[in-house]
Amino acid sequence: MSEKLVNRVANSQLINIDLEDFYPEGERVLFDIKEWLFAEQILKEKDFRKSVKDLNWETYQNKFVALTCSVDAIIPSWAYLLISVELSPFAKKIVVGNLETLETSIFQEIIDRLPVKNYINKPVIIKGCSNKPIPETAYTQLISKLLPIARSIMYGEACSNVPLFKKQV
User: Fold this and answer.
1) I need a labelling partner for 149 at 20 to 30 A (CA). Which of 9, 44, 155, 167 fits?
2) Alpha-carbon dihedral of residues 155, 161, 167, 169, nearest 10 degrees?
3) Nearest to 145 by CA among 110, 96, 100, 102
4) Domain ranges of the chain
5) Cα–Cα–Cα angle for 124, 19, 102, rounded to 5 degrees
């Protein structure tokens, strides 16, 4: 007598969330303004404005851009704002910071817009391994969004997961 194998995971209410599925396509670019500083130390307004005006901003079409200055210089806030004015018509997203800051900001928006109705009172597993650069902060943001509504939250794969939360009944 042979017993039929039953895939309990496939038959369960368990809902998988893979943040990689939400990863938006588009090049991530670090835009460093150090080249526009006098001696890589001082921002001269007139020269800076000319550099901003003369750049072909269309090259940033549909890109995600992190504005930064990689040298130790005092950069007034308006400098990044001036760049943003020119860059905004072309870039998908602009942040001041590094590429990690950019990715974190991208995923914050994704998680904020994530519809939660499918996760209400359901067991949820958050897939842990990904081939794309998902920031660690995205996982904590997702947990915060799911905690009030999910019945349980796990991390990993259905066959080997780490329980993180179970709603007390």
Assistant:
1) 9
2) 170
3) 110
4) 8-24+103-166, 28-91
5) 140
CA distance linking residue 28 with residue 129, whole number of Å: 21
Tell me which residue of 68, 84, 83 sits closest to 33, measured CA to CA. 68
| Residue among 168, 109, 152, 166 nearest 17 (CA) | 152
SS3 95: strand
Per-residue pLDDT 10s for the chain (169 aa) are 557 654 444 446 899 999 999 999 999 999 999 999 998 889 999 999 999 999 999 999 999 999 999 999 989 999 999 999 999 999 999 999 999 999 999 999 999 999 999 999 999 999 988 888 899 999 999 999 999 999 999 998 878 888 889 998 7
Of how many residues is the chain composed? 169
- Helices (H), ranges, the chain: 8-11, 45-54, 77-87, 99-113, 136-146
CA angle 70, 75, 79 (to 5 degrees): 105
Q: Please name the amino acid found at residue 65.
A: V
The C-alpha atoms of residue 157 and residue 66 are separated, in whole angstroms, by 33
Q: Taking the model in full, what pTM does it have?
A: 0.83
